[in-house]
Design brief:
39% helix, 4-stranded antiparallel sheet, 8 helices, alpha+beta
């Protein structure tokens, strides 16, 4: 299981320190009073490997702030096939549909390992923002920054070369979740070539060839623990 930066959250019944939630990207920059109110109302849970946080088409009633572990996002195709759309790690928000007027989750979220989450129901979070308007204002600022990052992801997905698309996608994952190893970044989870192919819109065989070319350029290497990227 991934190491959670906040030791309080790792304890089953210990108090949740305001810095735990205030340090997440969504609520970064909150004043101490707002961060404290956020921590008081968070619903903390441990989620075992394989747990489904929510399913595609289910009523959107709760969002989850991930404190430890990794979550895979998938979408079900008409033929029943589950297509991976991305991976989220500590500090990520999933189920943010709760912040909009949409009534159902557009995708599913699965725990890739044991996870720790801090959740907020739709009604609970709305009440919190009404009581502490500063939380809503800071949320808007932080989400604007997030949109810029997603724009970078979109640009990488439209690159002409599969090799460039693959490198761009892996680089974004490494910058967000990677563990530094000298001048390199290690992805703390494993991805199959089939999963990578679905992420970049290519066949598994083509991804295998592109991976080989990236390794020959020394931009990427693979070992028993997973993938390691040169910092770009």
């Amino acid at each position: 299981m991934s190491v959670c930066a906040c030791q309080d959250l790792q304890q089953e019944f210990g108090p949740l320190h305001p810095e735990c939630l205030g340090g997440l990207w969504l609520f970064r920059g909150l004043c101490p009073e707002d961060a404290g109110a956020l921590a008081d109302r968070a619903l903390r849970r441990r989620r075992p490997l394989g747990t489904r946080l929510f399913g595609q088409g289910e009523p959107a009633t709760e969002m989850f702030l991930l404190k430890a572990g990794f979550i895979k996002l998938t979408r079900q195709q008409p033929d029943g096939t589950e297509v991976p759309l991305g991976i989220r790690g500590p500090g990520s928000l999933v189920g943010e549909t709760v912040l909009t007027e949409a009534g159902t989750y557009p995708l599913s979220a699965w725990c890739m390992e044991d996870c720790l989450t801090c959740g907020f129901t739709r009604s609970g979070f709305e009440s919190l923002v009404l009581d502490h308007p500063g939380i809503g204002l800071q949320l808007l600022r932080n989400m604007s920054e997030r949109i810029e990052r997603l724009t970078d992801l979109l640009e990488s997905s439209t690159a002409a070369s599969l090799e460039e698309r693959l490198l761009g996608t892996l680089t974004l994952l490494a910058r967000e979740h990677g563990i530094p190893e000298g001048n390199q970044l290690r992805l703390p989870f494993n991805l199959t070539h089939e999963e990578l192919g679905l992420l970049v819109g290519a066949h598994r065989v083509s991804v295998t060839r592109a991976m080989g070319r990236l390794q020959s350029r020394r931009l990427l290497k693979s070992d028993r623990q997973g993938l390691v990227l040169s910092r770009i």
